[in-house]
Amino acid sequence: MALLEVEDLHVTFRTASGPVHAVDGVSFAMAPGASLGVVGESGSGKSVTARALLRLFSITDDVQISGAVHFDGQDLLRIDERRLRAVRGGQIGMIFQDPLTSLNPLMAVGEQIAESLRLHRGVSRSEAAAEAVELLARVGIADPEQRATELPSSFSGGMRQRVMISLAIACRPRMLIADEPTTALDVTVQAEILLLLDELRRSEGMALMLITHDFGVVAATCDDVQVMYAGKLVEKASMAHLFDRANHPYTEGLLRLVPRFEDAHTGRLHPIGGQPPITGGGGSSCAFAPRCSYAVDRCLTEVPPEVAVGPQHLSACWLAADRAKDATEAGRPWRRAQ
Amino acid sequence: MGVAVAKRAGAGPGRTSQHRAWGWFIDKLGSRGWILLVLFLLLLVAASIVPDVFAPYDHEAQSLRFRLLGPGESSPEGVHLLGTDSLGRDLFSRMVVGARLTLFIAVTATLIGAAVGVLFGLLGGYFGGRTDRLLMRLGEAQTAMPMFLVAILLLSLLGPSVLILIVVLPCLVWPIFARVVRAEALRLREETFIEASVATGCSTATILGRHLLPNVAPRILVLCVVEIGHVMLSEAGLSFLGVGVQPPDTTWGLLISEGRPLLAVAWWLTILPGVLLGVSVLVLNLLGRYWEARSGAAG
Amino acid sequence: MSVLEVDDVVVEFDTDAGRITAVDGVSLHLDTGETLGLVGESGCGKSTLARAIMQLVPMQRGSVRLEDTDLGSLSRRELRRMRHRIQMVFQDPRGSLDPRMNVSALIGEPLRVHGIGDRAERAREVAEAMELVGLPAAVADRLPSELSGGQQQRVGIARAIVTDPAVLVCDEPVSALDVSIQAQIINVLDELRDELSLAMLFIAHDLSVVRHLSDRVAVMYLGQIVETGTASEVFGQPRHPYTHGLISSVPRADAESAARLRTARRLVLGELPSLLDPPSGCRYRTRCPYATDQCAEAEPPPEPVGPADGLHAVRCHHWRTIVSAAPEPQESATSQELAI
After folding, report:
1. Interchain proximity A64–B4, CB inside 8 Å
2. Whether B1 contacts chain A with CB within 8 A
3. Is A177:A209 a contact under the CB 8 Å cutoff?
């Protein structure tokens, strides 16, 4: 049975310049202990999707959410604020790109973790303090007793992210949402954090939802991947399957966009022309059609449905079936051009 | 089924409580109010350029028979809208004529103060170090001195004159300009575009004049408008004390001063120029804050 | 012939906590038409080195020779006159443009301050530079705030090449941009380098981007260059444990992704030491799995690797015994090889 089941999620921001359909009918499910990478450019709706699950929006956002988010037998969009708070940081932990802004700069990190433990689990003060030290040790912080008494400012970026992770897993959540957790970090630190997330997921049996723009990050940590564009899921697949047979033209574009490390200089890169729509989805055509070099007339008049193009592999493209056939024959269609 | 979540919080334009107080005023006024303010200012400027168009009577014409007429009373010449003074001169005409010198002194002194302050602020903010410390100490030293008293002293020693007024009044405002411009220059010099212009090969003069100055100009303009009002008040104060503008020249401050002995019998001679002065300062302040809020929102 | 020669540059800074050596004896050279990629993690001193080369921060020691002129020996005025031969592209595209100048004024400024051409010629040069970087003529009158991030960086590049410099220093020119924009800007730089035969110093933390653009690379750690050589030598057969760890850290979209990260974790231990108290001897020894007493005692000099053409050099006492830290998995060997 699925741990998380998102059904037809819509998130619309009302802004001065009109509504923005940041998330436009997204459905997916995650089994307990599963790992899912969500990939897209900025503005694709990947972060908003994650925030919508826990209704984490700023008080100044004028936002409308609809659909259903079933988690562990309750609909997170419909439970009251008090029960939602118990889920946030309780059953679902979250970490973000910038750990500094999520930590209280004037409170020792050990205290912050202990506070969260007392709040969610009601343990005693001394128990909480001891467990905070244990948690810091578990996320790979050396000399945890000493570090627990220090302020966030005395931690490096990578260490702060470790503290955030220890906070997020403090209450043994069943799911961890990581929103670009390593984007601000150096590569060697990123490597450590990604491994830590992967190892914690396995040892704690948590589900991991990792939001990133980097397919490499997904490959290191997730079994499944879904690609978002303009508020919609355009492709879902298992990791191994997607890289071999990327079907959607947008996925193909993303893969060809960045230089591959293994390649020395192999000519020019292949940028995707144009810009993602700033108003998100909500149109009556394929949102990617204006930037798509394969687009046909139909793409401009009808929204493509999700089509199964392989085992556990869906693609929302009118050409999905044809492209899947080509891929089977030729393999790695996105690579041929290189 | 939709689930509405968060509502927009009331967002005022200001950050500090002082800003918020002005913000409330600014909100209340609305766009039509602004047109009125600008119109008022334009009238003042017009009156100081061509007073004859606005003044109903010769401001120096005396008439001892019709002295101390109250507002609205008439002499054979006609109705005196704001009454007459102890020599029978029409108060409204004198206020119109007084606008010229009042504005001239305030604007000139402010511009001089601004020029000095901007130069010091730019140099101090951009170069930092010893230059900065020297210039800022100078400003502080001056701020610490009771400049108004010093002005009184100077003017009584050298004898009151418009020229000396225009030399002394800028001393009151330049430290304010220097402080604001320095803070801006300190912030801007850390911006990459200043580093980029050094890398491009710009000379220091080019960087100060073409990159820093244009970027602080909006703040300077706003500050000028506000400070003109303050200088006006200071000039009025000095003239009121008798060390400022001397008759037969006239400014609003001098009018207030002349009316003061007669406050018990002819209130209008003091109160009406006072109200005009107060309103003018308020209008300048409001306009300054309004532009600041607008440019802040746009930038 | 080297158009840029950097010799033993040292840059020190005073911070609140004490004096730090941000760049510690760096030498490098750059030939016409060549791109040198400078990689390293935050705090390694690569941006400071760029600013020292640009003479934007004072050097404590060493020299920077541009086309056989020692920039350090010039007066302020002479230096200013030299600047059109060496230009820079900055990391923050928006912040590096004066918000109150429009696109054509921004791009034309270097020409104006160097007194190049008359008004009409300058307008022509600006138009030409805009075309080279792919800016439509229609944006000439716009302010930076009215441009997209990619367009802003194109303006920054156009401004840097408009004086036809010999050397272009690019400090993380794409790291502030969205991935799809990055590809466009990388292509622009790639094309310019070919077309204008620029010598380019390309600084970035993204190894894939550096490998894509660079002929040679230099790897920096704590203010020193620990390994340098051709891109294929350094990235294909890294000799320094840090270089190897850095390369293994790059998340690649393939089946061995996680395994490679584990290799990285083995090669880069613990945390970056403070610049206030750098390790004695080899700078890397506190994080190196191969460190011995020798590493703490003596600072390893740069040693040539392989054929003595002097291109591939490494600063490590043990590079011969560390069996060339596992070469790159061959493309053919991994049919599951995936890409990014």
Report:
1. yes
2. yes
3. yes
CATH at residue A27: 3.40.50.300
Of A172, A193, A222, which residue sits at a domain end?
A222
Distance CA A193, CA A202 (A): 14
Nearest to A59 among B1, B4, B9 (CB): B9
Q: How far apart are CA B162 and CA C177, in angstroms?
A: 59
Give CA–CA dist C104/C159, Å, rounded.
9
Domains of chain B and any CATH numbers: 99-294 (1.10.3720.10)
Which residues span the domain enclosing A319? 243-259+286-337
Say if pTM beats, i.e. exceeds, 0.80. Answer: yes
Instruction: Indicate yes or no: CB of B5 within 8 angstroms of CB of A60.
Output: no
ipTM for this model: 0.85
CATH number of C2-214: 3.40.50.300
- Per-residue pLDDT of C238-269, as tens digits, reads 999 999 999 999 888 887 888 889 988 888 88
Tens of pLDDT, residues C157-207: 999 999 999 999 999 999 888 888 899 999 999 999 888 989 999 999 889
Q: Are residues A182 and A249 in the same domain?
A: no
Instruction: Tell me the residue type at A200.
Output: L
> Does residue A301 belong to any structural domain of this protein?
yes
Using the CB atoms, write b or e for B96-128: b if 16+ within 10 Å. Answer: bbbbbbbbebbbbbbbbbbebbbbbbbbbbbee
Q: What sign results for the dihedral spanned by CA atoms B94, B99, B100, B105?
A: positive
Cα(C159)–Cα(C122) distance, integer angstroms: 12
Q: CA of B19 to nearest chain A CA: how many angstroms apart?
A: 20
